[in-house]
Amino acid sequence: MKEIKKKKAEISRMKKSEKGFKDLFGIKCPVIGMIHVPALPGTPRFRLSIREILEKVSQEAELYAQAGVDGIAIENMHDIPYLKREIGPEITAMMTAIGLAVKNVTDLPCGIQILAGANQAALAAAQAANLDFIRAEGFVYGHLADEGLMDSDAGALLRYRRQIGAEDIFILTDIKKKHSSHAISADISLAETAHAAEFFLSDGLIVTGTATGKAAKIEDLKAVKEASQLPVLIGSGITPENLQDFFPLADGLIIGSYFKKGGYWENEPDLERIEGFMDLVKELRG
C-alpha cells in the first residue's frame, strides 16, 4: 500500500509540473531564445559599462519579442572562464538587474542560467526579478566539467528553493550535460539519469548535444520521453534542417547559436534568421 501511495503522489506531482510548464507558455513546443549577456563585472572579458550591458540586453529582448519567440532565457556565457558553483555577489546582482531589464521590455516568460552550476544564485536572481524558471546543471549525478569535478546539488537546491519561498519557479535540469565527461556514470544510461532527476523532483529535463550548437540525438530524446513523464526540452543544436525531427516529440526548444549571425553564439542576434525560424514553427503548429 505504501508503494502504491508513493507512486500515486509521484504521478500527481509530475502531472502538475507538466501542466504548469505548458500553462506558462500556453503553446505547443515553445521556442525559448537565448540572450548571452556581455561579460559581467570582475570577469576577464568585462568591457562594457553596466548601463551599456543593460541597454544591450534590453535591445535583444525586444528583438526576440518582435521576431515572435515564445520565451527568453538569460545566461552569463561571456564570463569565461567560469567559476564552479560559487560566484561573486556582483554576478548575482547583475543577473538580477538583467532579468528585471528583460521583464521591463517584454511580457514573455523568462528564465535564467548562471554558469557554471551556480544554481542557487540563479534561483535567488529569478526570485528577485520575478522570472519564471532556471536552467540547472549538475542536478543529479556528479560529472567532470571543464571547470572541474561537479557534485550533484538537487537536495541543497530544492531545500534552498523552499527556504526562500520560490516554489513557483520551475527548475529545468540538464541531464548528461554538454561540455562534460560522464565517464564516472558511464554505466548509468541517459534514461536512468532522467528517471533519477524526476525522482529528485526536477520540474523538467533538458537534452543536449555534446557542446554548444551541437545537435542532440533524436534517439536520446525518445529514450528520455519514454523514461519520464516530465516535460523534455532540447537545449542545443536546433536548426531549420532538424526542426521537423524534434518538434513532434519535444516539449520545448532552447535556441541560442542558430539565432545569432552566422549561427555562432558570440555574434549578435539575427532578426531575419529568428523570424524565418519562427515561421517554420508556426507552420508545424498548424
Brief write-up:
This protein has 286 residues and is an alpha/beta fold. It contains nine helices and eleven strands. Strands 1-2-3-4-7-9-10-11 form an eight-stranded parallel barrel, surrounded by six helices.
Descriptive key words:
286 residues, alpha/beta, eight-stranded parallel beta barrel, three-stranded antiparallel β-sheet, 9 helices, globular
What does this structure look like?
Helix 3 crosses helix 4. Strand 1 (31-36), helix 2 and strand 2 form a beta-alpha-beta unit. The protein is built from nine helices and eleven strands. The chain is globular and about 45 Å long. With 286 residues, the protein is an alpha/beta fold.
The chain-level structural class is alpha/beta
Radius of gyration: 18 Å
Sheet with the most strands, sense and barrel status: 8 strands, parallel, barrel
Strand tally:
11
What's the mean pLDDT score? 92
Helix content: 40-55%
> What distance lies between the first and last C-alpha atoms, to the nearest angstrom?
45 Å
Biggest sheet strand order reads: 1-2-3-4-7-9-10-11
Which regions are unreliable across 5 or more consecutive residues at pLDDT < 50? 11-16
β-strand percent reads 15-25%
> Secondary-structure element sequence?
HEHEHEHEEEHEEHEHEHEH
Shape: globular
The total count of helices amounts to 9
